[in-house]
């Protein structure tokens, strides 16, 4: 049995689901952040548990030919990315392997017989994120903004994030300077003093519009008018300035109240031939370039002929349903968040779709009701949160028996578990992994399931 602090040699076999190297020491699995498949490393055990251990690299004896120098100077401290030290093509292969590992661990499917396609990546895997949420702090009298370091309470100041769109980097940097110049008090987590907690900026890739949201711990925002005037002067590209109030001790960024301080209440973004209005708290895909590829894959998998009834479960602001609406007879979407459904209805109306309706509620409640009323879907598209589909929804799908289920997943483990449940009645035609977040361990997939 390994002891904490013990040093030992290890050969790395593959990447784990969080991007860490995985090896075996005397049959015990060891996770080593920063180690790559094929590398021989000397590791020090940092945590030892009954079924596994965690370690850190002391020395690399044999380097992977795919190891590269990370572009970002704070990469090893920030924790926002996990794979910048791995060549991009190798990242894409590793992500396909992460999907395979999840299926091995969480399903009873015959993996050899499955069509698991090569990961679809980006031509340029940098500057792809349209939104940044950086916590603020003060270090040596200077206002800083960034992310908390992995497993610690050290705030890492990020001057330029290489996976963020340059517009959001610029806005964050200038806003830090304005806070400094106007001496606006920054919130202190431990002392519970000060005002400004988070700088949130979002850019419309297609329109160039920028939205700025300042999250404050109090409704009072000292020198607010001066702040707005300075933003307008120094950042003319900002079309919407808002304040969100979050006085709670919580890991959630946003509170319930948002006040528009200047400009429009939303910015515009375009995906394909659809345009969307994004209010301060509206959820929207973080990588618009890859989202178009992902949604096109959903359209291909759904294989609509204008005669199908489609359900868009977990529909959010309606993006996937609207993407399919032209090829469908009718689309019905549902979500438990009322604001998202309001946005979805407005989006459908603005694009002139008359064959799309949205309801607030859970799919597992609404679907049986619709079937009872004589409305049965041919295709169900699910795009659940990381936890996967609700068990009640999976049971409902098995009862309703649509001919096709298109599963959009942001977590291979819950995807594997859910398609294993559906495998009683559905055959997995293929799984297509996507890289929506280059340099991180995240992998999205579209799985097409057809009724047996």
Automatic annotation (TrEMBL):
SUPFAM superfamilies to which the protein is assigned, alphabetical: Nucleic acid-binding proteins, S-adenosyl-L-methionine-dependent methyltransferases
Q: Name one GO biological process term.
A: rRNA base methylation
The protein's matches in CDD domains, at most eight in alphabetical order, are given as: AdoMet_MTases
For the ligand (S-adenosyl-L-methionine), the binding residues are: 285, 314, 335, 383
> Which residues does the entry assign to the active site, renumbered to this chain?
410, 410 (nucleophile)
Any one Pfam family match given in the protein's UniProt record, by short name: tRNA_U5-meth_tr
| InterPro entries, per the entry | MeTrfase_TrmA_AS (IPR030390), MeTrfase_TrmA_CS (IPR030391), NA-bd_OB-fold (IPR012340), SAM-dependent_MTases_sf (IPR029063), TRAM_dom (IPR002792), U5_MeTrfase_fam (IPR010280)
- Coiled-coil stretches, from where to where? none
Keywords from the named record: 4Fe-4S, Iron, Iron-sulfur, Metal-binding, Methyltransferase, S-adenosyl-L-methionine, Transferase
Q: What is its EC number?
A: 2.1.1.189
GO terms (molecular function) for this protein are:
4 iron, 4 sulfur cluster binding; rRNA (uridine-C5-)-methyltransferase activity
- Which top-level enzyme class is recorded in the Swiss-Prot or TrEMBL entry? transferase
Q: Which residues form the TRAM domain?
A: 1-59
Q: Which family does it belong to?
A: Belongs to the class I-like SAM-binding methyltransferase superfamily. RNA M5U methyltransferase family.
Q: What is this protein called?
A: 23S rRNA (Uracil-C(5))-methyltransferase RlmCD
The organism is Anoxybacillus thermarum
């Amino acid at each position: 049995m390994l002891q904490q602090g013990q040093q030992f040699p290890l050969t790395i076999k593959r990447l784990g689901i969080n991007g860490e190297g995985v090896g075996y020491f005397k049959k015990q699995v060891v996770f080593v952040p920063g180690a790559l498949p094929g590398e021989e490393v000397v590791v020090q055990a940092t945590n030892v548990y009954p079924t596994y251990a965690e370690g850190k690299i002391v020395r690399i004896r044999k380097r992977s030919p795919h190891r590269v120098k990370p572009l970002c100077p704070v990469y090893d401290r920030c924790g926002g990315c996990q794979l910048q030290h791995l060549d991009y093509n190798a990242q894409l292969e590793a992500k396909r392997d992460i999907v395979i590992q999840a299926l091995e661990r969480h399903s009873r499917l015959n993996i050899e017989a499955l069509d698991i396609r090569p990961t679809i990546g980006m031509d340029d895997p940098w500057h792809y994120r349209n939104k940044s949420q950086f916590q603020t702090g003060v270090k040596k009298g200077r206002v800083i903004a960034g992310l908390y370091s992995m497993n610690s309470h050290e705030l890492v100041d990020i001057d330029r994030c290489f996976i963020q769109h340059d517009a959001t980097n610029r806005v964050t940097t200038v806003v830090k300077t304005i806070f400094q110049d106007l001496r606006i008090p920054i919130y202190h987590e431990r002392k519970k003093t000060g005002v400004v907690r988070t700088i949130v900026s979002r850019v419309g890739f297609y329109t160039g519009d920028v939205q700025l949201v300042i999250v404050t711990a109090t409704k009072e925002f000292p020198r607010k008018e001066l702040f707005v005037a300075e933003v307008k002067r120094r950042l003319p590209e900002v079309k919407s300035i808002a304040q969100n109030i979050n006085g709670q001790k919580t890991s959630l960024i946003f509170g319930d109240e948002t006040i528009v301080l200047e400009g429009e209440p939303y910015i515009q973004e375009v995906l394909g031939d659809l345009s969307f209005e994004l209010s301060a708290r509206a959820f929207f895909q973080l990588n618009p370039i890859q989202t178009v590829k992902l949604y096109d894959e959903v359209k291909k998998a759904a294989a609509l002929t204008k005669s199908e009834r489609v359900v868009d479960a977990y529909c959010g602001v309606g993006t996937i349903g609207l993407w399919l609406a032209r090829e469908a007879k009718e689309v019905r979407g549902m979500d438990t968040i009322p604001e998202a459904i309001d946005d979805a209805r407005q989006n459908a109306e603005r694009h002139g779709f008359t064959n799309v309706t949205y309801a607030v509620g859970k799919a597992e409640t609404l679907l049986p009701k619709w079937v009872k009323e004589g409305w049965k879907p041919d295709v169900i598209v699910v795009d659940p949160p990381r936890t996967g589909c609700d068990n009640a929804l999976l049971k409902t799908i098995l009862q309703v028996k649509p001919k096709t289920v298109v599963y959009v997943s942001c977590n291979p483990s819950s995807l594997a578990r859910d398609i294993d449940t559906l495998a009683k009645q559905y055959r997995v035609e293929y799984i297509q992994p996507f890289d929506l977040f280059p340099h991180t361990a995240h992998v999205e997939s579209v799985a097409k399931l057809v009724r047996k």
